[in-house]
Amino acid sequence: MPLLSWFNREADLTRAALAPYRLLEPVAGLSYGEADSPNMLIEGDNLEALKALLPYYAGQVKCIFIDPPYNTGSAFEHYDDNVEHSQWLSLMYPRLELLRELLAEDGSLWVTLDDNEAHYFKVVCDEIFGRKNFVANALWQKRTSPDARIQMGAAHDHLIIYGKNSEKLALNLLPVSEEQRSRYKNPDNDPRGPWVSSDFSAQGYRPNQMYAITSPSGKVHLPPTGMCWKNTEEKFLQQVAEGRFWFGKNGDGVPRRKNYLSETDGRSSWTWWTNAEVGHNQEAKKEINVLFGAENAFDTPKPERLLQRVLQISTNSGDLILDSFLGSGTTAAVAHKMGRRWIGIEMGEHARSHCQPRLKKVVDGEQGGISEAVGWQGGGGFRYYKLGVPVFDENGHIRDGIKFEHLAAHVWFAETGTARSTRAKKEAFLGEHNGIGYYLLYNGILGDDSKAGGNVLTRRILRSLPKFDGPKVIYGEACALPEEQLRELDITFRQTPYDLKAR
């Protein structure tokens, strides 16, 4: 597969792995609403924040939406979008690696970009996600009219979509709109209710679908030139008997199949998203101006209806959404209103000046954007976090003050590649994965507070561990058991911190 090359690429390939594993420290004064809310607003560098999330959320995010810097060569007030092309790729590559690890097997990544980087981005995504997992490149009509200052102005942005695993990808039909519902009629009083008709001819030539159809008036119809009927004659006659065909008011028209509103689960999406359906830049700007005032608004927001469409297709109620370039907070706001769990990451003061105030208003029931359409009245909450110290110091040693549950999450993820629940029991036995039991002896987890007490694997400690019938991996500061006994008991001992590798 062709690979994209850029300055410093080799260093970028290892940047995600070398990022420090940091703790997430709650900021009670900036959290809001329900105290036990699962929603997270994180302030800090998104590469390190993503790394911090892995032990708890790897493989659990149903939809990732990001609106990264477009690299347009323009300077914006709230972030610098004028990043040289290689630097832009250096920014995106390691973050995409971590985002992929966080995605669920049936999850999807949605990324908005313009022509400056969209095509390069797809090549990089093909490398990280695999070309077979490319879903579509949707075009969002972001403007309502041409830009008079430009001879050939851009009317659209790209919305590039990848699945974690295309064979397991789960996408939804869109709900039928009121405008579409109005097209359904019932001129023949069909007991199944209102319907719309569709063409019964199909491209190609299939001998068993080439037959004459006699309409109720006696008029005979053959397939159009170069085409055939959509079903065999046997299937067609069965559906005619069920009243599922329409031959026009006088009964002599070309056969058309009825599609009933009562049997419609939804409608398929396609890759052309008009601003009438999902909003445009001016609509987004008005939403932000109402929230923050024109003098303090965000420069490049996305309309809430655009995010609503993304989440309608990619998620269901209760699913987990992630945006690591949260911007003005639109993704989190829409996810909250639609009953999804969410994690948003934004750098520095902007997380406090825009995202946190906006999401407070959402919890309080603000009525802008999609609120009326989804019946939003307020509720829920979010926890605010900032990046804390790395778990390991510059010499690879575990820092003082690191709690058992923090190291346990890291051990579990390093060994299994899966997330450890934030509600996992605080005990030496971390759990079983693929037939192997994992243990951690750390910070006196067994109730022995003496120096190194309970953290060294001895015969006494081994007898006190929760039982597991199978091979075991035990982490501790040291091991007092001989190698022969470890082999006999099918135990692999790993010494902390030296055998604990950051993934």
Q: Can you say what the CATH homologous superfamily of the largest domain is?
A: Vaccinia Virus protein VP39
Helix content: 25-40%
Oligomer: single chain
Report the major sheet.
11 strands, mixed
The total count of helices amounts to 15
CATH architecture of the largest domain: 3-Layer(aba) Sandwich
Q: Separation of termini?
A: 26 Å
Q: Report the sheet-strand fraction.
A: 15-25%
Average residue pLDDT? 91
Name of the CATH first level of the largest domain:
Alpha Beta
* Sequence stretches where pLDDT stays below 50 over 5 or more residues: none
Rg, Cα atoms, Å: 29 Å
Which term fits the overall shape? globular
**What's the β-strand tally?**
24
Please indicate the count of domains.
3
CATH topology of the largest domain: Rossmann fold
Structural class: alpha/beta
Can you give a write-up of this model?
The chain is of the alpha/beta class and 503 residues long. The chain folds into three domains: 9-173 and 267-389, 3-Layer(aba) Sandwich (Rossmann fold); 178-263, no CATH class; 404-495, no CATH class. 29% of the residues lie in helices and 22% in strands. It contains 15 helices and 24 strands. The chain has helices at residues 9-18, 46-57, 85-102, 118-129, 178-181, 233-241, 275-278, 281-292, 304-314, 330-337, 348-364, 371-374, 404-416, 459-464, 483-488; strands at 22-26, 32-33, 40-43, 61-66, 103-113, 134-141, 156-163, 195-199, 201-203, 213-214, 220-221, 227-229, 245-246, 256-260, 272-273, 320-323, 341-346, 381-390, 429-433, 436-440, 456-457, 472-476, 478-479, 491-495. The strands form six sheets. Strands 1, 2, 3, 4, 5, 6, 7, 15, 16, 17 and 18 form an eleven-stranded mixed sheet that branches. α3 (85-102) links the parallel β4 and β5. The longest helix is centred in the first third of the chain and has 18 residues, at 85-102. The model has no long low-confidence stretch (mean pLDDT 91).
